[in-house]
Amino acid sequence: MYKILEKKVLNPTVVQLQIEAPLVANKARPGQFIILRVDEDGERIPLTVAGVNPETGAVKIIFQIVGSTTEKLSHKNEGDYIQDFVGPLGVATHLDGLKKVCIVGGGVGCAIAMPIAEALHEMGAEVTSIIGFRNKDLLILEDEFKACSDTLRVMTDDGSYGEHGNVTVPLKEMLEKGEKFDMIITIGPLIMMKFVVATAKPFGVPCTVSMNPIMIDGTGMCGGCRLTLNVDGKKVTKFACVDGPDFNGYEVDFDEAMSRGRMYFGYERHKHEETCNLFKKEVQ
Amino acid sequence: MAKANMTPTRNAMPTQDPLVRAHNFSEVALGYSEEVAIDEANRCLNCKTMPCVDGCPVKIHIPEFISKIKEGDFEGAYQIINKSSSLPAVCGRVCPQETQCESKCVRGIKGESVGIGRLERFVADWHNTFCTEEPVRPESNGHRVAIVGSGPSGLTCAGDLAKKGYEVTVFEALHTAGGVLVYGIPEFRLPKAIVAKEVDTLKKLGVKVETNVVIGKTLTIDELFDMGFEAVFVGSGAGLPNFMGIPGEALSGVYSANEFLTRSNLMKAYKDNPDTPIMKGGKVAVVGGGNVAMDAARTALRLGAEKVYIVYRRSMEELPARREEVEHAEEEGIDFKLLCNPVEILGYRNPEDPRDPKNGFVTGMTCVKMELGEPDEKGRRRPVVIPGSEFTLDVDTVVMSIGTSPNPLIKSTTKGLEVTRWGGIVVNEDGLTTRDGVYAGGDAVTGAATVISAMGAGKTAAKAIDEALSK
User: Fold this and answer.
1) A62: CATH
2) Do A151 and A49 belong to one domain?
3) Which of A76, A197, A246, B358 is the least crowded, having the fewest Cβ atoms under 10 Å away?
4) Which residues of chain A form beta strands (DSSP E)?
5) Are residues A171 and A256 in the same domain?
6) What pLDDT does B2 receive?
7) What is the distance between the alpha carbons of residues B122 and B30, in angstroms, rounded to a whole number?
8) Which of A26, A219, A267, A268 best tests the B interface by mutation, with the highest count of B CBs <10 A?
9) Is the alpha carbon torsion for B55, B56, B58, B63 positive or negative?
10) Residue A47 domain boundaries
11) B418-463 pLDDT per residue, tens
12) A265 at the B interface (CB within 8 A)?
């Protein structure tokens, strides 16, 4: 069992937890993920590590309430325990040698992008961050990004905060102005990452994307997290859990990944509603 | 002593009715009664040369334990098996006896061999039901050994070392101990309570089990040595599932057998309204002919599929699964499409509406018919495509069960650990790898194989570790 040391509600749908898991805290580096189960018979879900404190043994996770498992997790409080917590899994984001980087985060993906921005900042790299949200209410981690970015652009889809528009607008503008990034690192919804890659392509800037597909074991056993890369005209199957979660954005077949991501959509929605109803009943 | 029973056929294994069991996850085979076990034991001629023992990867003293059954001393029989095998209740259920001990049985020449596996299962179940004596924890010899993975090879290695007084810690990546015995082999073939009981017995012998630790990630092999472990056994099991490389394998509804079985077994998706979803019902094709394929097909049936096919490119003769599983699958109504090979998985796509929820889901699988050509270098007749034989199977779910490639996590984080061209860990005859103090066995070394051969490797390594550390 793993203790919840701290809980913070970042916005109506996004929660931050600090979980006591010293072995994971010792090892985790930006870009890696963990798998957790909330309770016995619970589902295993992957969440990317949003930060660690090796001294206290705390691992920070930030998640959006999207299904029944994240709903259940959001109802846990400080001092409660969760059943299982294993990691760090996946390969850490390759940051060596990067001097000027553009980080593009969307929604809860910003939680994953943030430790990468922090690590780059500590390395002395010049960090440009573009973070996007649907609206002002869903904004998270603005102060944290401000602290580790040389330039920060905050975007909202409806213009209710920051600049109006999506993240590709300032990215395109900067690239057109001749900004020379060593690397663009983008983390967020698949559709956003697809368009960030498309925006970067004409400028030939290397582009790393962080994939978060359906997975079970997370250690290279089930193969559920497979995705297709187009490498030099050849289709190659890779597994996000052991080969990723980071991939060369120019090689990822996003349409396929989006289609696979919808596999249990109907089931999840139904299950989520059911769980919500259970919690509502408890409140009544 | 009773006179030898010279009946040419063995006692049948009582089973659940096929039509009933196809809809439940309870165990298929029900086990011998005491009377039937004694009757079957009396078919053993107690050969002096003991050919059956030669066929057993862990060298169980088979005629000896069968003699105890003849005398009605079932606990005595258990104690004899227990000297060689840490997991008798498991092996009695999942070993391919017909190609091992039973294939060497003299009674098999003019009739059927003695039902050695069935007797082993009987003895183990009898012990588990009636024996209340707790296993005694041996005195510690002060040496510490780490085991990576709690599957059959790791549990065997742990058990053998613990019995000799070693302080053993088993590290398991998943949340439950048992490895393939819990995530892979379904409840109806190996009830999870039996695995839990075997793990529990090891714990009573002093074995510590640490779940949620991925060696190669959470801790490395080097760190295990730093922590004071003097030897490490790697039994990390099979790895990434293989796919065929045909179009459509990324469609929703295409699973690897590992994923399909893990969802159902470990994650309990077979229960009503589970947290972990799985595609239930519809028509299912399982591609492959091994035990894992049989498990996947029969799981699909029990999850409510209206039709389940096994698609295998060779004929029944070459089908590698355990004979009993094939027979059970046929009785339950699994449709064997033999000499058939998939060439494409077809998916639904509505060009009018990209939001159509059916988009991206499997609608069928195109196959070609095969015939057997000349034998290859291994002597297996090579399947050859019959031109113009394409046809489409109407299915909604496809499960690929065509083997695995070794897991990369440990080799990529352990310096000096040599692997073969295809990724298996290189070991010598003692199970020692190219790294001092690091031993390995099971699927991590051989690629996908059987539970019992993994146990054999765990046993060999335990002996070698004991010899190295007691010097």
Assistant:
1) 2.40.30.10
2) no
3) B358
4) 2-11, 14-20, 33-37, 45-53, 58-64, 81-82, 84-89, 100-106, 126-133, 151-156, 163-164, 183-187, 207-210, 226-231, 234-239, 246-248
5) yes
6) 59
7) 10
8) A219
9) negative
10) 2-89
11) 999 888 999 999 999 999 999 999 999 988 888 888 998 999 999 9
12) yes
- The single residue listed with the structure tokens 């379904």 is B186
Query: Of the residues A46, A62, A89, which one is the last residue of a structural domain?
Result: A89
Q: Which domains does chain B have, with CATH numbers?
A: 18-130 (1.10.1060.10), 144-239+406-469 (3.50.50.60), 241-403 (3.50.50.60)
Interchain contact, B218 vs A27, CB within 8 Å: yes
Backbone angles phi, psi at B113, to 5 degrees: -65, 165
**What span, in angstroms and rounded, lies between the C-alpha atoms of A71 and A280?**
12
Question: How does pLDDT run across B189-241, given as a tens digit for each residue?
Answer: 999 999 999 899 899 999 999 999 999 999 999 999 999 999 999 999 988 89
pLDDT in tens, B85-140: 878 899 889 888 888 999 999 999 999 999 999 999 999 999 999 988 888 899 99
d(CA A242, CA B239): 11
Closest by Cβ to B360, choosing from A69, A262, A266: A262
Shared domain check, A148 and A26:
no
**Stretch B58-84: mean pLDDT:** 94
Give the chain B residue whose CA is nearest to the CA of A87. B218
Distance to chain A for B369, nearest Cα, Å: 26
Closest chain A CA to residue B404: A221
Is residue A212 a part of any domain in this protein? Answer: yes
Q: Does residue B277 register a pLDDT over 90?
A: no
pTM here is 0.92
